[in-house]
Amino acid sequence: MKETMLPLLSILLFCLLLTGCGSKRTTFVLLQDPGGTVGKISVTNEKGTQTLKEAGQSVVINSYTDAPGDVKPMEEAKIQSLFGKALKISPSEPTKFRFYFKFDSVELESGSIKVLQTVVQTAKDQNSKDISINGHTDRSGNEAYNYKLSWRRAMHIQNLLEEQAIDPTFILTTSHGEGNPLVPTADNVFEPRNRRVEVIIR
Amino acid sequence: MKRYGTFLLLALVLFAMPVWASSIGSIKNVEGQGWIERGEEKISAETGVRLQIDDILKTGNNGAMGVILHDDTIISMGPRSEMVVSEFVFKPEDGRFGLLAKFIKGTFSYLSGVMSKLAPESVKIETPVGMVAVRGTNFLVKVED
After folding, report:
1. Cross-chain CB nearest to B135 (options A40, A127, A144)
2. Which residue of B has its CA nearest to A34?
3. Phi then psi dihedrals of residue A95, to 5 deg
4. In Å, what is the CA distance from B104 to each residue of A46, A59, B24, B35, B57?
5. Which residues of A78-88 are buried (b: 16+ CB within 10 A; e: fewer)?
6. pLDDT exceeding 70 applies to what percent of chain B?
7. Residues of B with CB below 8 A from A179's CB?
8. Contact criterion met (CB below 8 Å) for A112 and A99
9. Chain A residues close to B141, C-beta within 8 Å
10. Which residues, 6 or more positions from A134, have their beta carbon under 8 angstroms from its beta carbon?
């Protein structure tokens, strides 16, 4: 009895591990971007590819061994009934700010001083617990020096935020040196727009 | 002088490394039951919890959760959902990019971040029935049990 049951049981277990319990039928729906444009997605498996290019288009794939089905429009009511909870909890896009600095300095350009209060207010309004501070320089001076300079700029902003009672455990500060310019230039070029610290409030 | 500079650079990189290496984004919104499985650990989902590569994100019967990755990719999950981000490289300063998210089951909303704009071919979403290639956009996925 035991000997005949064992192979059957192993096969059953193996199938469960391999496929899970159901078919894994999957539905894909393309939406409009928040900015109003529409991108596209392509869904591909061993049996074929299907591309969605218009907002509200959908495609269903029944299993990994089935080709993607036909592209069909999905009504807003159906979208809400299938995806309402995921859509409702979706976070807003992060808010970004830039501080500009004087040449070879951690001193803020006069126009950037007032940005600080807006940053602090936004962080509090959004109850943000994830704030990135990324320091940058232009390409005048050598790379290693600039890495250090952009670190000092970023830390300066971090200190200012901490003085305004922003919890430092929410902040992640990085230095990009001259490697990630806003305006690409040749080496050893002065470019005030690249002497910056970017703050991202999520 | 140059050697001194290189040493400094290395020191700074090493100093900053642990934070860079560990965090790929964070949880922004949670409702109902949501948690992260990280190896043997089970971490309750709360706003501000930082995410790591290979974290398994799960929601319960009435749960929902929304996360923001460091390139501003936004992913949210409805009830009874499960996903893993198994690759995340966002180094615009070296031109290195990579994102692989696995939607295992449940409902998902996906909104592209900076990576999709700078290097769309480096972004991939895996589902049990096939791969999604993303061209700068916003889409929904429902994986049935």
Report:
1. A40
2. B138
3. -100, 135
4. 18, 18, 19, 15, 10
5. ebeebbebbbe
6. 86
7. 93-94
8. yes
9. 26-29
10. A154, A173, A174, A175, A176, A180, A197, A198, A199, A200
Is a pLDDT exceeding 80 seen at residue A16? Answer: no
ipTM value > 0.90: no
- pLDDT over 50 (residue B106): yes
Q: What's the gap in Å between the CA of B92 and the closest CA on chain A?
A: 6
pTM (2 d.p.): 0.85
Chain A residues inside the 8 Å CB shell of B23: 172
Is the model's pLDDT at A18 over the cut of 60? no
Could you tell me the pLDDT band of residue A104, with boundaries at 50, 70 and 90? Answer: very high
* Residue A2 C-alpha, separation from nearest chain B C-alpha, in angstroms: 32
Q: B64 at the A interface (CB within 8 A)?
A: yes
Q: What is the DSSP string of B18-34?
A: HHHHH-SEEEEEEESSE
What is the rounded CA–CA span in Å between residue B145 and residue B127? 12
Q: Which of B5, B23, B131 sits opposite A172 (nearest CB)?
A: B23
Residue A131 has pLDDT above 60, yes or no: yes
> CA-nearest residue of chain A to B31?
A89
Q: Which whole number is the average pLDDT over B47-52?
A: 96
Please state, in angstroms and rounded to a whole number, the distance separating the CA atoms of residues A180 and A9.
58
Cβ distance of A30 and B137 shorter than 8 Å: yes
Q: What is the mean pLDDT of chain B?
A: 89
